[in-house]
Each structure stands twice: as C-alpha cells, then as structure tokens.
Amino acid sequence: MDPLFDAGVVKDPLLTELDKAFVREIVYGVLRWRGRLDWIIASYSRIKPSRMERAILTILRMGAYQILFMDRVPAAAAVDESVKLAKGMRKKEAAAFVNGILRGIAEERKEITYPDLQTNPSEYIAALHSHPLWMVRRWVDQIGREETIALCETNNQFPPLTVRVNTLKESREQIIQQLHDEGIEASPTPFSPIGLCIKNPPSLASWGLLQQGWLQVQDEAAQLVSLVLAPKPGERLLDLCAAPGGKTTHLAQLMEDQGEIIAVDVSHTKLQLVQENCRRLGISMVRTKALDATKPLPFPAGSFDGCLVDAPCAGLGTLRRHPEGKWRIKEADILRLQVMQNQILRQAAPLIKKEGGILVYSTCTLTQEENEGVISAFLTEHKEFHLEDATSLLPAGCEGLVDIEGYLRTFPHRHNTDGFFAARMSRSVAQRHPII
Predict the structure, then answer these.
(1) Share in percent of the chain as helix, strand, coil (round to 5)
(2) Which residues are bridge partners to 426 per DSSP?
C-alpha cells in the first residue's frame, strides 16, 4: 500500500503538502472504516454495496468518510464533490444515485443504527468497528468480546512511529540527545532497549539521521524477535523470508557486524531492499540469495548456528499500519499460509547445527493456526527440537510479553506494538524435555 501511495501521491509534483495530507487522510480513512461505511451506505441504498459498480462504491465511501469523520469538510462540499466525480464517469443516473445516498447520510447521520451488542455481538463489532465478520468471530472466541472491541478500536488508530537505533554507530542515549538538539521529541520504547518512539517526525525521505543510517524504522515488537534468537558475534545465521531486512540488520547489529548472515527471499526485487538497508546502516556481513524457502535449500546440513524464519503470514497484527489487510486477507488464506509456513520450517530444520543450534519462528499475525499450531506440528514431527522459554532473553519489563508456554506474544491493544508471535527452539542430539 505505501509504495503505491508514494508513487501516485507523494511523488506527484503538482500536489502541495496540504493536498497530499488530505488525500492520505481520505485513502487511509476509507481503508480503516470501510466496514462501517458500507454498513451505513447499505442503510440508504436499495442496492447492496457488494453489487455496486466499484467506482461508484468508492465515490460513496470517500464522500461518506468526509461527512462522518472529517469535521473540517462541510457536508455539502463532500456531497457536491462526490457528485462531480460521478458525473465525470458520464453516467447521469450514477450522479443522482450518489447525491441521494450522501445527502441522506449527511442529514440523518446521528440516527444510524447498528446490530445489537447483546444479541449479535460479533455483527455489532464488525459493523461499528469496521472489521470483517470472520475476523471478529475468531477474536471473540480467542480473547473474548471486550478485548476484541479494544483490539478493533486500536487497529483503527494511527500507529506510533517507532525506530531502532543503529548501535553500530551510536547509543540510544546519544541519539536521543541529538534528536532533542534538532527539536524532535523522542522517548525510549518501554520494551526494546534500542527503540525510540518519535513524535511529529520530519519527512522520512529527507530525515538526515534516518537516511544516513543512524536509525531504522521498525516496530518495537519486531525488534524483540531478534533478541529471542540472541545471536553472538562470529556466528553463521540463516534468515529466511528476510526482505525488507529490518530483522536481518538488527541481527547484524547484535553480532557487531562479525560473522555471516545469509538473507534469503523469493523476490530479487525485495532483496535489493535488504542490500540497500545494509549499505545505509554500514553493515557488511550480510549476503543475499534469491531462493524459494518452501523447497530444498542449497546449504550443507548443520551449517548454521541459528536460523530465523520470519514467515509469510496473514499479517493480522499489523492492521494499524496496513488497514487494507482487513479486506485483502480472506479466512481461507490462513490454511494456505499454514501449509507454506510448515514447508519453510521443514526446509530450515536440517540446516541448523545438531547440538545447540537455534531456530526461531516468527509472524506478525494473531491466528492460532499460523502460530502455536505451526509450532506444535513442527515439534511433533521433529523430536530433535525442543521449545525454549523466551523470557530470559528479553530485557527486564518484558515478562508480560511471554505466555505460559514460553512464546513471545504481543497485541496492539495491550502493548501498543504490532501483534507479533515468536517461538525459540533449540536442536540437540540428546532427547530433551519440553518446558512446562
């Protein structure tokens, strides 16, 4: 979503910064609130949104969003501009259709009703808090109704900008002081020892500290994943599904740029992002290879001290940053992804050294099938691996982020981070007992 928006809007020389901000608000606002917008539009239309022509539905969503969420835009102006867009399609009946629905919303918006919370809680949450019904039902079963509401509310908020300090160049304390001198407000992240929360940052494209490699944009929970692997200088690591390289470069930092990391991704183009991040951050120990990690990999058995499998997933823990994911991901995708995740772990397992090799599996999703379900199946199939508790590998204050089984697990509404899952597994020739 971001690269497309950057190409179509941010880099348009004809748009002012105010124009770009206005377009961003509408685009991301409609993506966040599409479910509620469609519920409201359906209340005023004889045609269901699912049966409308896509261009007309998009115009209605944008107009309704301005009426309902943008106080600085007069409702009449939102209606008029939407009608002009419809007329531009050269469909007279479409313009009248848009006009009628949006005027109805503008005049009666305080009287909109939703499903009853007590009798239809999932339907209520899905409509009011703008999430797919299948997703809401899963979360209600997993974490309960009240937490599901809190999670959905958080998903509809703008996430904080979190960066990782490049400790190969400076300490976090020194960077905070430098940011302060530049008039930028930065505060230490509560969990990651090298993270910063930035308020009112400058444009990322022209921010000197970022472009010169002193900082790396990365969510705080993502920073914790590398700590779970806990690599040491001089080791040889395999990083599967590595692009765009946030965790790859963090592992290199932890290793003081000493040793070797083989960063694997199926996409040549995305591996260029890994290479660019390494150059910007001053990292020389990373080598990239374009390979399909679901198939046998061309490395000798037992040749890596550790491996990170940052698996492709449904991404339900990152909906604050990627609201389009709510509508792009389908429930059927979860089992398809689970199959892929299992395949990647099977390819990684024999490449870890037999005694004390470490395999870390991580996702940025919240589904049980993609997380503990994958690990349970893997450990059943691979008796030479056992699960280790992640608690001792994380800084003080992170105890609440590790569950009773030893998994790192974060939630946006609980921890103000992306939703992440990570499992650390150790390989040993001798039979070990799993943690309780």
Answers:
(1) 50, 15, 35
(2) 358, 386
Answer yes or no: same fold for 2-113 and 220-427: no
Q: Where are the domains of the chain?
A: 2-113, 161-217, 220-427
Query: Whole-angstrom Cα distance, residue 237 to residue 429?
Result: 20
The pairing of strands 236-240 and 260-265 is parallel
Tens of pLDDT, residue by residue over 375-420, are 999 999 999 999 999 999 999 999 999 999 999 999 999 999 999 9
Within 10 Å of residue 17's Cβ, how many Cβ atoms?
Answer: 9
- Catalytic option among 152, 313, 364, 398: 364
15, 9 contact by CB (below 8 A) = yes
Q: Is 364 a catalytic residue?
A: yes
CATH 3.30.70.1170 assigned to 161-217: yes
Residues 151, 126: Cα–Cα separation, whole Å: 12
**CA quadruple 72, 78, 79, 80: dihedral sign:** positive
The DSSP secondary-structure symbol of 313 reads: -
The CA-atom distances, in angstroms, between 222 and each of 168, 322, 413 are: 19, 15, 16
| Other CB atoms within 10 A of residue 435 CB | 11
CB neighbours of 322 closer than 8 A, spacing ≥ 6? 1, 315
- For residue 43, pLDDT over 50 is answered with yes
The span from the CA of 219 to the CA of 210, in Å, is 15
CA-to-CA dists, residue 311 to 96, 158, 298, 368, angstroms: 48, 25, 19, 14
Could you give the CA distance from residue 295 to residue 282 in angstroms, rounded to a whole number? 32
Cα separation of 28 and 285, whole Å?
Answer: 38
Say which CATH superfamily domain 2-113 falls into. Answer: NusB-like (1.10.940.10)
Which phi and psi (to 5°) does residue 215 adopt?
A: -135, 155
Domain 220-427 fold is Rossmann fold (3.40.50)
Q: How confident is the model at residue 436 (pLDDT cuts 50, 70, 90)?
A: very low
